[in-house]
Amino acid sequence: MISVTMDMVQYDCPYIDVTDETDVSFHTMHWDFNTAKQKLETRILVQGDDRGALTNGLGALQEHDRMLEFELLSRRGDTAVIKSFIGQTNAMRTIREHDGYITGPFQIRDGSELWSVGFDTADNTDNALSELEDGNDVRVESRNATSFEEYLDVIQHLGAAKNVIDGCRELSETERDTLTKAVEGGYFQTPRRATLGMLADEFDISKTATSNNLRRAEGKLLERVVSVLPEVDSEDALIGK
């Protein structure tokens, strides 16, 4: 499989138009393309810069001339979940005509959209990207060939990956910033390029406070990593690693 991540501006997509006009972003939670009706059904998380921005964004999307159906499922503060239907866009048609398929959620903000797309062959990939440039503004962020074994490895370890991601979300802003500075500064390298004192100076706090922040961050992440090791080991054994 050829995996392509691209940043794309579609000139016929209502979601992109709305993020270009209002301070909202869209993150797809579920999507399904109905080939018979040529309609894309999506359930989308909508986030506004504030409550007013969300109201403006939802209103603009509902009134867009390419929006076929719109339903507000829930709303809380500056965040909402919607169900919507749009017709097939030029980019969607091009990818489908070259046997491409979506491999990740759409992320739409500031007038452009991040797509994760898969193709079975390099020729399909090249032809699709060439045609996409005719009707859209496309920038390829990454392109990688993924073997069946590598793809299977990712699928089988989704649970373990989510567990580690949840651990990252448990970090406080201070813990996250401290750990990031430590890694970027070379604190964990041998020999160390950054000392505890240098990290403390970065945050203008004592070395003791810096050490505590760092140890809490390490503890939260390592606890998650250790908890998924048995799962990874058992799945590796099943595929003969």
Q: Care to describe what's here?
A:
The protein is α+β, with helices and mostly antiparallel strands and 241 residues long. The protein has 2 domains: 2-145, no CATH class; 152-238, Arc Repressor Mutant, subunit A (Orthogonal Bundle). The chain is 49% helix and 30% strand. The protein has 9 helices and 9 strands. Strands 1, 2, 3, 4, 5, 6, 7, 8 and 9 form a 9-stranded antiparallel beta sheet that branches. A hairpin with a 2-residue loop joins β7 and β8. α6 packs antiparallel against α9 (207-238). The longest helix is centred in the C-terminal third of the chain and has 32 residues, at 207-238. The protein starts with a strand and ends with a helix. 22% of the residues are buried.
Question: Radius of gyration in whole Å, from Cα?
Answer: 22 Å
- Quick one: biggest sheet? 9 strands, antiparallel
Share in helix = 40-55%
Distance between the termini: 21 Å
Mean of all residue-level pLDDT scores: 89
Instruction: Please tell me the total number of domains.
Output: 2
How much β-strand is present in the residues?
25-35%
Helices and strands, in order, run as EHEEHEEHEEEHEHHHHH
Q: pLDDT below 50 for ≥5 consecutive residues: which ranges?
A: none
The best one-word shape is globular
Helix-and-strand structural type = alpha+beta
Fold blueprint:
Elements: E1 2-10, H1 14-21, E2 24-34, E3 39-48, H2 51-63, E4 67-76, E5 79-87, H3 90-97, E6 101-102, E7 107-109, E8 112-119, H4 122-135, E9 136-145, H5 148-156, H6 158-170, H7 173-185, H8 196-203, H9 207-238
Helix pairs in contact: 3-4, 6-9, 7-9, 8-9
